Amino acid sequence: MIQQELEKIYYFMKRDIISFSTYKTNIAILVMTALFGALSFAYLGSSATSQSVLETYHMNLTTYLIIGLAFNSYLAQALTLVQKTINPWALEEVLVSPTRLTTFIVGSSLWGFIWSTAVVVIYLAIGVFIFGVTLSVNILGTIIVLALGIGTFIGFSMIGAGILILTKQGDPVTALITIATSLFGNVLFPPQVMPAALQAISYVVPQYYFFTCIRLMLTGWTIQMIMPELLILALMCAIIVPLGYGIYYWCLKTARKNGTLSWF
């Protein structure tokens, strides 16, 4: 009897291994996530990081990390927004109901952003009252930067959701953007501590400009002082949002035409 149960356990495990091994893209993404995650923390522990933060942003490493980790919660929420609210298995029910799609999106995502706001407040409160972080918030500038960052990541989210609607096999876009954020996005360490080739990647991803601008808006800088970085972020947002919508719309249209919209 025990031997039979052990054999069943073995075959269940074998089934899962075979299923897992068929998704080679996901395997590659998992390996890359582990690799780049290790690199991120290696750079975070580098003695050059603290000096680079002080020289580049005129703040200590604690302030740098508190702000980066706090506002990363907004981007993480935006990055998964469309996948959570307009996924292949719920979308068909929404489309046949009297509810407008925009109403469904806003209603389904509002709590996530409220919670992200609470997380930001907690992070900043801990920074101020426990670690002695000094903040001087430019409210208008913070709102502008936050809107551009969230908008850009919603664009990425639409691309990921579109691919998910067609493939039904996972969303590589979200994984890759998450990797890019942790390693090249200026969240845990400034790109200036990396080799020149990796620095160049940082300067072409919107995360770098978002975290650069949001930190400076919370530490006494004016909008005029961050205008070059802010304009680049705005340009990226203006490109990625319509591109993401176009890709998502095309994937949705294709899935409806093929009759595979509700498959998962």
Overview of the molecule:
The chain is mostly helical. The chain has one domain. Helices cover 78% and strands 0% of the residues.
Task: Please give a handful of descriptors for the protein shown.
264 residues; mainly alpha; 12 helices
Secondary structure tally, helices: 12
Structural class: mainly alpha
Mean pLDDT: 78
What percentage of residues falls in helices of 4 or more residues? over 70%
For the record, give the distance between the C-alpha atoms at the N and C termini, rounded to a whole number.
37 Å
Report the radius of gyration as a whole number of Å: 21 Å
Instruction: Please describe the biggest sheet, giving its number of strands, its sense, and whether it closes into a barrel.
Output: none
The poorly predicted ranges are 36-42
Extended strand count: 0
Strand % is under 5%
The global form is: globular
Please provide a brief summary of the model.
The chain has helices at 2-22, 24-44, 47-57, 61-79, 81-85, 88-95, 101-129, 139-167, 172-184, 196-202, 206-217, 227-258. By secondary structure, it is an all-alpha fold.
